[in-house]
Queue: 3 jobs
Job 1
Amino acid sequence: MKNARVIYENGNHKWIAIVRDPERPAYLIDTNEYLVISGDEAILLDPGGSEIFPAVFSALSTQFDPRKVGQIFASHQDPDIISSLSLWLEFNPAIKCHVSWLWANFVPHFGGTPDNYLALPDGGAEIVVGGRRLVAIPAHYLHSSGNFHLYDPQAKILYSGDVGAALLPPGEDGLFVEDFDRHIRHAEAFHRRWMGSERAKRDWCYRVGQLDIELLCPQHGAIYRGQDVRRFIDWFAHLEIGLLKL
Amino acid sequence: MSAQQGRDSGRELRRIVRINEEIKHVVATAAKINLMAMNAIFLAKRAGHSALGFGVLSNELRRFALDLQGQMVRLREATHGSVATVTVFLKRTRQNRIFGRIIRQASTPARAHVEAFLLERQEKGLGREREQLAALERRLTQMIADTAQLVEMGSVLARSAKIEAAYGGAHAAALMQVSSDFERTIGEIRHSLEALIKQQDDGS
């Protein structure tokens, strides 16, 4: 089973990171799922692939009643992001899934009916959870052509999908980045290959650089906090991407 | 597996969630008993010789709280095992729905292939998975029964503490208050456990 760790808590407003399953088979990439709780409601960010559904579901249940998860945010369309959706919908057919309009006709191949989908426009949108406003931030071409991140202005947390991701070796897989220079080596190859647009990257770095962020939470690897958030944005801004040398 | 069985799998998952929510409640209450018992031990020490019996019972109640917490951890692990098994059923339901559409739409040879495949799969896998789920259910039922016994023991300890409190001399009122709190809190656990047993009965 995965671990459910509280990474932010202020009254009835919480962020839970669902991470690091010791029983995960090595052929499945490790993923982080996040649950944003506001009062009696919650949104699950990138719930993961169908293979890890039991591990995510069980871990989430230790911290929150899964019957109250009413919304799902899919940063993009990849199987490790959203292929468990059909299982969540078997459990609760009323769940609404926010996804880029670009993928709104693709993701239903995983399951659900039109009633389950809320298409996000390219410019982004506000998502309300328990009266609290979260913001879907455009991150197109990073890496998917219809891609969003989710910003919580009160918690000052940015869920950054594949941006900031690192493939960590065993023994260096702590929840938070502790040594930025050592950590970023595990992120470099991933970003060079997966991030395809230099222009989109510069635009993202500029826009996200304006936000007040305490925690930058990627879908793979460790969470950046404090000064490491700015260090990551600067590092990414200067990284050459979209190149494959054969 | 039919659509009905698919709906049953979704319902089964929701039932497991309800059990898990009760478990969380019992864990929180057991932690409260642990703290109450520690306070009761200090109180008994302050009361001295007249509260010796009460002190012994407070120690036992603390051990009971720890045993109960351990038991609930094992119970929670068992429910997590059930989630994994039910997930297999949910996936099969979805796959079978899709194969069912082939049977309705496809020409005769394709239909025959799919029917043969589904039959073979059912014979190979489904029986084993059902047995696995049934075994988990039996284990869960047994663990809930064991927990009920443990809680019964806790109730007896709380009642005995109330009797001992009467011999507490000058501290009798304070000891009586603490033992009444024990009794009420263990009553809450019994209530949760009854809900757990009901959930389990609904599933069987």
Note: The interface with chain A takes residues 6, 9-10, 13-14, 17, 20-21, 24, 76, 79-80, 83-84, 87, 90-91, 93-94 of chain B (CB under 8 Å).
Job 2
Amino acid sequence: MEEKKKKRIGVYICHCGGNISDYVDVAQVRELAGKDDFVVVAKDVMFACADSNQKDMVADIKEQGLDAIVVASCSPKLHLHTFRNVALRAGLNQYQYVQVNVREQCSWPHHDDRKLATGKAAGLVEAGIRRVMGAESHETIRVSAARSVLIVGAGVAGMRAAISLASIGNEVVLVEKAAEPGGKLAGRKDLFPGDVSGESIVQDLAARVRATPNIKLFCGATVSGVCGSMGQFQVKVNVGGQPAEDLEFTVGAVLIATGFDPYKPEPGEYSMGSPGVIPIGEFVKLVESGSGELMHQGRRVRSVGFIYCVGMRQTKGKNKYCSRVCCSGAIQASLSMHRRYPGVQAYHFYRDIRAYGKQEVMYTESSKAGDVYFMFTEKEPPVVTADGSGAVIKVKDSLTKKQEVEVPVDLVVLVTGMVPQADSGAIAASFKVPIGADGFFNEIHPKLRPVETVINGVFLGGSCQGPKNVTETLSSALAASAKINAVIGKGVIDLDPVIARVDSSKCVWCGKCAAVCEYGALVEMERDGRNFAIVDEPSCVGCGVCAPVCPTNAIELACFTDAEIEGMIDGFALDQNINITETAAAEESAAPSVTMKEYPAQWHMILEAMKDGPISIPDIAKASGLDASLVTRHVMTMNRYRVAEPAGLDDSEQYYLYQQKS
Amino acid sequence: MAKIDPTLAGKLKKYGAKDFPACYNCGNCTAVCSLTAKDANYPRIFLRYGSLGMKDEILSAREPWLCYACGECSAACPRDAGPGDFMAAARKFAIAHHEPTGLTRLLFTNSPFAVVFTVLLAVVMGTFMMMVSDRVDPDNVLKRWIFDHLSFSVIHDMGMVIFTFMGLSALLGMILMGRRLFAGMPKLENPRKAIVSAIHNVRAELLTMRRYRKCQDDEEPYFKDRKWPFQPWFVHWSIMWGFIGLLFATILDFLLKDPATTTWWPSRILGTVAGIAMMWGATLAIIYRIKGVARQYRNSTLADWALLGALFAAGLTGFWMEVAVMAHLENDLNAAIFIIHTIVSMELVLLFAFSKFAHAVYRPLALFNYFLRQK
């Protein structure tokens, strides 16, 4: 695979309008680079990213027959793709381009030492040249994707995602462990906000699922085996029956929507197990089952005490998190109770009320309805004593100077939160998806990639990820559907070629690489009686963690091959003679003010223009004779060095004004 | 250990604290209050006592009486729970609770009863006064019926009994309140000095309204740029001192046995000046309440209207009579005005202990307690 070393390289050193050239002797760096035998074109340019320069680069590549280019400018975060596109436009492979960052790594950090900045820039440029000499050309890796999805869990999240994925042309295998679809919402009545019952939402979704021909719903079924990777997962589904039958499917992606379990209070926790003490789930069923007189175990209920945060927010215990939905759930249950059974007094014992968003309205409504709220601390939780004839809740109420208050109630309701679904661990293991310290499934990034897992092709929806209400559950399920379709919708998946590769002749299969790979991308193969590792391309993300652990050096990462890295080291280590001219050095030492000596000439011109107070960039350009775009960049840099500062808008509100910073 | 009583909230609502259960104890009300102090922390905690049903905590507290209902707390309340209204309701609740007959509770919480009772009292007094008037024919059926059955002395004695009963009720109410207020009073190191200083402070407070002035909301747009005669504290001051002045003038008139025909008689001058002050305050207070110019004037109960209305009516008819007396206009209309003046004034005095008016005694008592405990 080793390509022939490059012979014709073009190098461009960018001034960045002074951002680089004020501190780095750009001409000297260009000169040193030009001495290299393989460098055919070496130029220094005011703005490498400018359209005109990009056109010049394309022309150079074509006219001079360049086969690789290096630009020494800013961070690749800013312009890597800009110059990769220049290479593409000129007919080069985009991986024949290397960017060297001499702004963030040379001119900005070493603005006080021109020689050092210049020397480091020259070294980095030489490293870039050596790297591009060893650079290989790569093409996007394309794998085929089955347009079908396995969804684990047929609660509202799973069903809603199934309908949405099926409606855009995907096959869906929907697997539900229970005998009926619907999950936790099945049978529920009152929801907030809106007047649609949970029951009817579930019925509606289940009917649509059953009526959709490209959704296969298996109830009483479990996933019994998974292999393969994104685009081509082979999954086995145990659909039950006597004897148990396994069906096999090939799916392009997997959506985990297994939901949560309600926290089960320990026996004795707030007198759990005594008559008249029930968890909120049971209470909601009791409330929704009738109206008129609220009865529990044959006794009339005239007052109810809700104890919040049961099993949650334990600073010392296992569940450190807040379940978010239980406060509003309890308040809603209380309002629901008032509607169905007028006259029942409700008491709420809480640590903090977290009725976020519109749910705050419910909280207010409940207070106005006469519900009494008591606040307790984790250290001094309420004490429940319950015999068959009712219960008494004793609480040190933080809101009443920690007075101990005794509240007799007929029913104690333990407001429990959400804990990970019991099978989460097993499901996580079979899909190799990580679970967090709290036991819920982990996404890659809670904000930037909220429904994806580190395993390519495996996605998350609903409360298997953490406590969510119905609205949030459906939002995440639909987000996952959209994400899944974006991956498998075209029937093929294009992968970044920057991934690991194994030289099978060197590999002895020690398993170390597979042990460190978080993505399960290194798979054992057997051929001709020999075991070795291969990279499952769709699974590899190119993190490179496998390469250094390989004892036989059989693994390399594309674009970061040993040849390229070693070339860079050689290039950087090359001893280059840097001469900073006498005049520049003399100018530096003769500068009268310590603070001003480092300012480039343009800054003095700009400061001169700022002498009479705040001034806009066009006016600075007019006064100084400098180009306006150059002034902009200088003023930005001056702002960063606290030499100039913004001073609000001008009267026409068209331009920002800047002034010298005092 | 306190036991919860969820029924108290409902009772307090009837005294005007309509929205207080909405309170979620954020404490903004206490934070913005200019009068709250380390040794007198309110209003939040009192709403809390109301929610939990801690009746004794409310009844034995002086804090409700230290509040002048400037309304700043209610304006700051994020849930519109009306903490200022709650403090007003707590005062009415305390008046009703301390007064032993239960009449006050009915007057405060049962508006139809309050209207029927005061009107009926007025009619009885009015009828009686018309009957004793010379303008009514001695052979009038009703007049003859009344005086044939009751001798004047019996009626006089009955009046005295009623007055004594009312007076004793008021006294008992004050004693009961004082007992609660002074219960658990720490032993004073130098009682004489403390009492003298407390009395001095109460007097200064009543004369200058210095605490009321402190609780003015500077941000309140209506009062922001108004001169002092229009400020709520002065309105309150002029009603209070106006009424006290009139009371003294009336007593002086009776002591001097010359029901004031001479305009320049000192007691008359006092009456006129005090009357003007009271009318100024009462008129402004009524206008403020009708227009609802600021938060504290918006949530008016029948008890508020009744007291203001009575003071205004007494003042207006009083001046009318003064003019009529000066001009020697003796006619039926002026006689009727005189009767109305007497009825209203009598009702004010008779119902003193049974109305919002009682705060004139309770507040100084609570202030005395507050200053006495102050280090």
Note: DSSP finds 19 helices and one strand in chain B.
Job 3
Amino acid sequence: MPLLEVENLTTHFHTRDGVVKAVDGINFSVDNGETLAIVGESGSGKSVACYSLLNLIPQPPGKIESGTALFEDCHQQKKDLLQTSEKDLQKIRGNDVAIIFQDPMTSLNPYLTVGEQLIEPLIYHHDISRQKAIERAIEILGEVGIVEPEKRIHSYPHEFSGGMRQRVMIAMALITEPKLLICDEPTTALDVTTQAQILRLVKQLQQQRNIAVIFISHDLAVVAGVADKVAVMKDGCIVEQGSVEDIFHRTQHEYTKKLLASIPEGAKPGLATSTNDSQKNDTLLEVRELKTYFQDHSGGWFKGGKKTIKAVEDVSLNIKRGEILGLVGESGSGKSTLGRSILQLVPTTNGSVLFDNTNLTQLSKHQMKSMRRRMQMIFQDPYASLNPRMSVFDTLGEPLLYHGLVTRRNVIEQVLTLMDEVGLARSAIRKYPHEFSGGQRQRIAIGRAIATKPELVIADEPVSALDVTIQAQILDLILTLVEKHNLTMLFISHDLSVVRYIADRVAVMHHGKLLEVGNTETLFANPEHDYTEKLLSAIPVADPTKERERQLAALS
Amino acid sequence: MSEPMTLDNSFQQAEKGTSLWQDAWIRLRKNKLALFGLGVIVFLCVIALLTPFIAPYGYEEQDLVLGASPPSAAHWLGTDIFGRDMLTRIMYGSRVSLMVGFIATGVALIIGVLWGTIAGYTGGRVDAVMMRLVDILYALPFMIFIILLMVIFGRNILLLFLAIGAVEWLTMARIVRGQVLSLRRQEFIEAAVSLGLSRWTIIHRHLIPNTLGPVIVYTTLTIPSVMLLEAFLSFLGLGIQPPQSSWGLLISYGVETMEEYPWLLIFPGLALSITLFALNFLGDGLRDALDVRSSKD
């Protein structure tokens, strides 16, 4: 008999626009010492399914329509979670079943020390003394790999880095010795090297404690390493379920195949032919010893002692016309600041940026404005980068009209042409950003960036907020546009497989410094720098067998 | 067949112009309650404009023999203690009240939105100086400020508008600045900068439209408070003077005689309440109409 057995779980949301079948009759089970991964794109219902079990969905509009979820609690009693009263569920939550959320920043209370938050479930559920609880908290912080736990227990959440915070979350989840751990995208907000560490930690703790884990993720590659069983969800239904080997090696369902095929793999298509292009020899952008420092003004007007943050430190690189240079690095490495410094969106401290032999750092604001037409940017978050009160027509028409590239009369024609190019239906011209999905929004943002026919485009993590199948489409769109308009691109990303797929050359940044630059394949095959090697080895591979081998290698 | 149809349609719509306000008007027309509110306001304004021609009596016309009388066929809303027709006085009062309400709020709106947007978007020292100025004005006792103005420039109804507006814009500026501070960190503002748009274009095309929601709600709250402020000032003898009237003035006299002659309070009070309700309906409707995300079409 498995630890948790869910049958015919159905959760609907009753909204003004009608019933949304978020979870539509799914079955799954998970046993002690087993990891079940639920994989699906955003909106597939994977989180709602798990939150329904603990009655954590907002009701109304949500409603659990039917189903059973038999769970064996700490007294070896079988209970149907869906029939349990709220009061009894409170005893189960955090005690028998614990959850780790996606964003470790928002799921910890910033006003309490981590120690305070760690002992809270212990005191609440087990009624033990404060002193004992603190001892236990120190012990478990050590277990999840926090150095000097007896000191760190008095720190506040903001004093930890993202990865450390997620370790604290794991400690908090495990402190009551739960039998089932639900991880909701626990590594999505983390850097690739941190992600690898956290995944290893979850796996290791699970084996030591022999607990069951439900691992929710949108990323098949991440799942390959941790899961025993995989369930693939789409539109509220489980389309395919089986052992991790079956899912990856003996894929049955079309949708799973599509998901697997969308994982960017291998090198840029047609790389060999395009490098011989004669145009590639002239340099469009040259960055020389660029420095961008920020002053930390937190002291206020009258206090001295400013802190200087060296976001970009002595970076030199050049990009040839028609080339895509990938820029990789972890969060805080200064890669986004470098992109913004090139476009003069943040003031630079020293050094020069030569764009087509004009030094942008020397230009007046007015001169810079006329240059802006020739260089554009694509932003990460398609939800924040579009003005919510401007329709597609306004958004795409604005740069055209502002720079006098079209007359008022033929602006519609131009906007429609742009929409064709980025693959938006012409009928959507009057719609507003909120009426589009993330991928379509990113298409609008790309349309805006290429509207003025720029020569240089800086793409700052343009696909990292998107689902994997959409990501593949957008990457292909970018490649097509680059080819068609002979664009030069700086492609910033934390995702090495994406960069490998799209870039001609790759630059690696760490702590504001440029570590190495090289041709994509050369760099991926023979990284010169230790850090690059570390980055490369942390990329999860969508192959359970290879992942297992790698984990063994990492442990030994 | 449906594809070319929608295409033509979108062409026509796009050619008609794409301003935010036109879109908002299309959405507002679907909101019955807001339209009703708008209707009431327009009706009141028309009455106020035409008052000198359609008022049944003169506003100073007294009938001391009649004195205070309850509503009757000759005086629909009754008369006050001097025998003056209440309907006439409310109609004349609406001229002052609506004018104060709209003009003073308009002054506050324009100064407040511009001040807040410029301070919030520019940031740094400019922001600090601009906002400290707001703090200083906040700290000035409002009454002293207005009394000073009245003493220096003499009693003048225009000055009253300006004085009230000059005080009410402070809160507006703070609200807008807060909005702008969170907006300017958003990527679409950065995108606008990287498109090479000028500062002014960014402010009026990208920032101000996105602050409209709270601004409109606050505006609909400001209009009634301004009307009451005028009543307070008039009551102290700093605003308009009898025999002229305003709703606020009528209400404050009505309160004194509430027990003997309740209609002297009820009818001006009703006039003010109806206006406030209408404004609130309109304000809510406008906020929804201007928020493209709330539309369900």
Note: The two ends of chain B are 22 Å apart (CA to CA).
